[in-house]
Amino acid sequence: MSVTTPTCLWNDSASLDELTYSIDHGAIGATCNPVIVLDVLRQEMGLWRDRIHRFIREMPTATEGDIGWRLVEEVSVRSAELLIPAFERHHGRNGRLSIQTDPRLYRDAEALVSQAVHFSRLAPNMIVKLPATAAGISAIEEATYRGVCINATVSFSLPQCIAVAEAVERGLKRREEEGMSNGNIGAVCTIMVGRLDDWLKVVADRKGVTVDPGTLDWAGVAVFKRAYALFKDRGYRVRLLSAAFRNHYHWSELIGGDVVISPPHKWQVHFNASEVAVVPRMDNPVESRILKQLRKFDDFCRAYEPDGMTVAEFDAFPPTIRTLRQFITACHDLEKLIRDYMLPEP
Hints:
The chain is an alpha/beta fold and 346 residues long. The chain has helices at 16-24, 34-58, 64-82, 84-89, 109-120, 134-145, 158-177, 193-207, 219-234, 249-252, 265-273, 288-294, 298-304, 318-342; strands at residues 8-9, 29-32, 96-100, 126-131, 150-153, 188-192, 239-243, 260-261.
């Protein structure tokens, strides 16, 4: 795919084994966040136990959260090193490690920008995840202006994608007006396609809405395809990224676009072993009968229509709430893990 089409593969993991596998199969990017760090620690605790104890000794006033985020930084920097060859080969457009800002800051634009700037300086090939919340949109513009390469996350809808792209354009324009270079700022906007599908399945179950089997597996793909066409038409300098995989459509239907596909390790193994043909499908429209059934759901229409939501409504969109709650829970789980080392049970 990465060789025969413009579509790029990034790895949705920072585990050394999983990232190495992915790079060997064409990956030119990767992701880290508190959820992933928890998985890495569980897989590689033998490599990190002494490091945790060292942090506890060297940071005598640090909280569990302080040490947890130092681990996020170290795991991210370690993985970023593996991507430097791709970063140099692609002149900064790929070869980046996505590190996520603290999801608990989703309402605080100033705090998001401050953390984004800090993260961007950890390695030359960092790309920083900022949420597509109301405050996050403001932070995306300011972080872009300050030279941070951003990856918008907690994003499921066309209105969010448009707001992200416009914020990046404003940030880039401010830089241009001040004579600063934008050559190495390769922003992306994630669409968590599977999480939109997940929510519509919850709604269908709650409200007793019946659609043809498989229909709800197309919701995220439909939004992604429409966003891609709109981005090309408007000339936005932001690439779209597909994440939160639930089925092979989230990969196969997007092949051929100048986009990023970021499946976790499990899905990459599935895809590599599958008989699904690696052929361009991005320009294939979602069938009208499927769209007609998806339009039974108000939240699909909000996600699919360019004016389906205002920026002020992003934070209350159910997939946003569900995702932020999961990400914030992962932060607390990471802190609990560190607490067990700082204050072991007597």
